[in-house]
Amino acid sequence: MTKVANQNQTQTATPSLSSRPLLHAALLGAPLLVLLLPDTALAGAGGTEFQATYDMLIGWMTGLLGRIIAVAFIIVGLIAGVARQSIMSFAIGIAAGLGLFMAPDIVDAVVSATLPIV
């Protein structure tokens, strides 16, 4: 039995880190910035620049508009489920309505997790 080499395969050498000065600078610069500017890392817990917009969107999602949209999702899912003769369209409509209504609580729980400063 003889082995036949595949002529279509080409091997390219992976360039070393020293041949990529921008990548090298980024890999060294990012940890240095974290060490030099630690207060910037705590910026996620404060700031009220967008608080009014956030409150307005949360009010829409959990208020009457959010409930109307959630019911519309359920009705459209029900109609699509009857048309396709499948319960999955109805289940997707329920999940979308529930997701719209529960999204603010989920976002608050995920984003507002802070660690105490020692």
TrEMBL record:
The chain crosses the membrane at residues 21-37, 57-80, 87-107. InterPro entries: TraA_dom, TrbC/VirB2. It comes from the Bacteria. Keywords: Membrane, Transmembrane, Transmembrane helix. The keyword rRNA processing does not apply. The keyword Transmembrane applies. This is TrbC/VIRB2 family protein.
